[in-house]
Amino acid sequence: MSGAPLPLEDAWAKLLALVQALPAEDLAVGAAGGRYLAQPLAARLTRPAADLSAMDGFALAGEGPWSVIGESRCGAPFGGALEDGQAVRISTGATVPAGSDRVLIQEDARRDGDRLALAGPMPGPGANIRARGIDFGEGDALLPAGSRIGPRQVALALSAGADTVRVHRAPRVAILDCGDELVDGSVPATNGAMLAAMAGALPCEVRRIGPVPDDREALGQALARCDDCDFVLTSGGASVGDHDLVRPALEAWGARMAFWRVAIRPGKPLMVARREGALVLGLPGNPVSAFVTGFLFAIPALRALLGAPDPLPASEPVPAGRDLPPGGERGEFLRANLRGGRALPIMQRDSSLLSPLARADALIWRPPHCPPAKAGTDVPVYRLENGAIA
Ligand SMILES: Nc1nc2c(c(=O)[nH]1)N[C@H]1C(S)=C(S)[C@@H](COP(=O)(O)OP(=O)(O)OC[C@H]3O[C@@H](n4cnc5c(N)ncnc54)[C@H](O)[C@@H]3O)O[C@H]1N2
Ligand code: MOO
């Protein structure tokens, strides 16, 4: 447990091995935004349910000229069938009547009373018609288990006739700020609010606790308020100082440490533990360290609890905006700005500095002992603005 800090990849693997998606529940489709499907979604309906017009105009049967014998509107389809030489006025999205195989857009039509003639080219068969079932048919598999229900998936599920979807339950999350200096107000307790804002972009129930003093009993009482939580997130007191009491307090509460310390900068003294059904992450107190470990571990853990199949953040190669020195003993996440397709590192690296953190829109990953990188060579970059944490 107190051995060498774990390489990032090993820490991620151990974390994911500890987390299981929470049990499933049925939720009204409109309330399921941000959740992940616990079972696949199949269509209960065919869409479109009938052949529909894609344009405002006239549904035609046979060659022109035509006589207009009625109208098909959304919600009020034309009841009968057309014979050759007949047409109906039709709106976008309205049902194409039987007997018609094409729609003439009104800009290409000349209407005089009930008489209709071409004022443009004759539409071909099927023109301006959305055929029944082109989106999906009843019984079609629409979304596999593990899909995230975003706004587009909400629309799809409703269109497919689902009232509810089976999704993983939203985690109950406790976020504790720890430190005497936060209790007396000499240092503003920024981490809890920051982490709550990060977590709050995902579907979860966040309970803020503290600030809690550096005191075993107080920490014990605070942790007792987390007994019903799925995920407990502390910040501060994770290091080796005399007042870093989070680990013994967690152990006294019944948490079993899975690992402590990851070979990353900032964020080394990360603690990961489990207690009965709950996952526990002890994040370091330095605000940048809390953010980086929140981004790399806490948000992915939340996604995993929600049932995301691929919960870790993804990096992309971006050319470095300047020469970068070789990597050290710990891998480093450099705060950076993406400008003109390049990632420009911010050179203030102290893990207490919030102004460079707030200015950054990306993190450049420098793996341990990596060779120097010349400006213009690709380096792995994690964008901060997507995925809940800007
Ligand atoms: N001898 C060693 N000292 C330290 C080591 C080490 O390996 N050996 N690791 C350093 C690293 S790396 C980090 S990161 C910090 C982490 O320390 P803690 O997690 O124990 O955090 P604290 O000591 O409680 O606080 C550090 C710093 O952060 C401020 N803080 C704490 N919580 C909050 C909060 N909720 N909101 C805002 N600011 C917070 C606190 O006031 C301190 O300034 O340890 C190094 N030391
Ligand atoms: O990991 Mo600490 O976060 O380097 O300052």
From TrEMBL:
Keyword Metal-binding found: yes
Domain of life: Bacteria
Pathway involvement of the protein, from the record: Cofactor biosynthesis; molybdopterin biosynthesis
Reactions performed catalytically: adenylyl-molybdopterin + molybdate = Mo-molybdopterin + AMP + H(+)
Keyword terms, alphabetized: Magnesium, Metal-binding, Molybdenum, Molybdenum cofactor biosynthesis, Transferase
EC number: 2.10.1.1
Names of required cofactors: Mg(2+)
Family under the similarity heading: Belongs to the MoeA family.
Protein name: Molybdopterin molybdenumtransferase
Source organism (scientific name): Pelagerythrobacter marensis
Classification of source organism: Bacteria, Pseudomonadati, Pseudomonadota, Alphaproteobacteria, Sphingomonadales
